[in-house]
Amino acid sequence: MIVTALGLLSGGLDSTLAAKLMLDQGIRVQGLNFNTGFCISDTRRQLKRRGRKEGTLRNEALRAGSDLNIPIEIVDVSEEYLSIVTNPRWGYGKNANPCLDCRIMMLRKAKALMPKFEAQFVFTGEVLGQRPMTQKRFTLRQIEKQTDLDGYLLRPLSALRLPETEAEKSGLVDRQRLLGIAGRSRKPQFELAKRLGIDEFPQPAGGCCFLTDPNYSRKFFDFNKYKAPDRQINLEDFTLLKVGRHLRLSDHLKLIVGRDEAENNFLERYTLGRWAFSPVDIPGPTALLEGSSSEQDRALAARIVARYSDHEGRSPIRIQCQKDQEIIAIDAVPIESDLTAQLLIN
Fold first, then answer.
1. Is the pLDDT of residue 206 over 90?
2. Based on the domain organization, do 139 and 71 belong to the same domain?
3. Is residue 42 part of a domain?
4. 271 and 150 in one domain?
5. Is residue 217 part of a domain?
6. Based on the structure, what is the number of domains in the chain?
7. Most buried in the list 9, 207, 229, 288, measured by CB within 10 Å?
8. Domain of residue 123, CATH code
């Protein structure tokens, strides 16, 4: 009998180790990687900044799948995930991360895919006690119940500290070859990787999700606070939160200013229906004005763009302002840096 397991594979060390432990028992592994729309590496690939090492632009799940010789299915949940991000049933973590809701959604999707791949169980790289929101003993149990995977969700790295799953009881998985790792230290995983010959993986640094980033979270909560009650949130809204400096000009108006050439080029894709600003005769940022604006508002935005342009002194800079087919020019004196700091969300 061929035993097949579905594994949630991010490409990080823990999920890679879990997959390797399954493979070493002769279990066929089908990897699942969920695209939520909030992966930092995905945005880096979109920006394609000059000088960035090629390794930071790859999809780590596909890289891990290639290294382990297992197939990876990319599951796009980005549209569905918006409602979770804006209204998580189980709340946020330290920042804007709805980690418990996110985990439950992914595992429900995995359970639904079990028949497609003829899988007997699902496994993850979760480690007991490693993450405060989703990997406590209570929350690991809660996740199993909420996803209807009770008894069919294996955590190979911490299995010896958790109740036996049906896969272990029935002999599909040899429990004695599983591990009992627990706690925040990454040393056991590093040692295991060395022993298993796994030498390529992204270094852990808070995960690959924008929602765990404090700067992104400030912009996210600001957006939620000031959006119109009847405003339908879409992926474009969240995409723009990932890029540039964001300055709150009023309750109904925000300016997004590119920080480098890559971000300027990125913002130029989203000018339709928005006022776009850029200096005429000197290098400087592209900026987008979000919300309905007055002539006075646009003058303030132009002064901010002048402030971030390649210009010294207080002499006026000509700023081109364009919204669709309407083009105007403003001679703007750069705004004082202390005023800019007061408006800055991030």
1. no
2. yes
3. yes
4. no
5. no
6. 2
7. 9
8. 3.40.50.620
Tokens of 187: 């040393």
For the chain, first and last CA: distance in Å? 55
- Give the residue ranges of DSSP H helices in the chain: 13-23, 40-47, 60-68, 78-86, 99-117, 137-146, 166-169, 187-196, 214-226, 235-241, 261-267, 295-307, 337-343
Phi-psi sector, 51: left (phi>0), alpha (psi -120 to 50), beta: left
| Torsion of Cα atoms, 53 then 56 then 60 then 66, to 10° | -10
pTM of the predicted model, to two decimals?
A: 0.87
The yes-or-no verdict on residue 50 having pLDDT over 80 is no
The one-letter amino acid code at 91 reads G
Q: Is residue 305 part of a domain?
A: yes
The tokens 């699942």 sit on which residue?
32
- By CB atoms closer than 10 A (0-12, 13-18, 19+), residue 166 is middle
Which residues constitute the domain of residue 329?
243-343
pLDDT at 158 over 90: yes
Kindly state whether residue 38 falls inside one of the protein's structural domains. Answer: yes
Q: Which pair of structure tokens corresponds to residue 317?
A: 């800079």
What SS3 state is found at 15? helix
Mean pLDDT of 58-76: 93
Summarize the confidence of residues 173-179 as an average pLDDT.
97
